Task: structure prediction
Amino acid sequence: ELVEYNNKRGFHTEFTFHGGEPLLINSELIDELCSYYSSLATNVFFNVQTNGTICPDELLAVLKKHNFHIGVSIDGTERLNDENRVYINGSGTYKQILRNIEKIRRAGLDVGAMATITASVTRSAREFYDFYAENKLDLGFNACYNSPNSSHQENKINDVQFCKFLSELFDIWI
Result:
């Protein structure tokens, strides 16, 4: 109903696969869902936000078929990223994420990045900025604020740290 409602009013509809790890979803199911929604209107768009550690070829083909925009979670350089983004065995994910970003690009898909701004990142604005510039990644980010449900509180930031980081990042950018 949402797609039809938006279509009648000249709006587009976007679906974003996000949370957990959406690239674990069966590629046939994603293809079915996207085909169905695309059959309802021409102005339907698809996105996925992934941790970037897996990138099956058969799923890339489906994402390409439906013109997905892919967002990959990566927090900057290897040092910054692997501080928090690790496999269950404790090893860092950075190298695998970069390999998969290149794989996504070779498949002809649009890829950008989403970073979590931690205390470590706020102390490394130049390193952070240079990473995304050198890797030609468009960037979105979220602040790592205190979460009452998280056991990892040492890397959280407050509003003052976040604003100072944004100001420093802006100064680097201009």
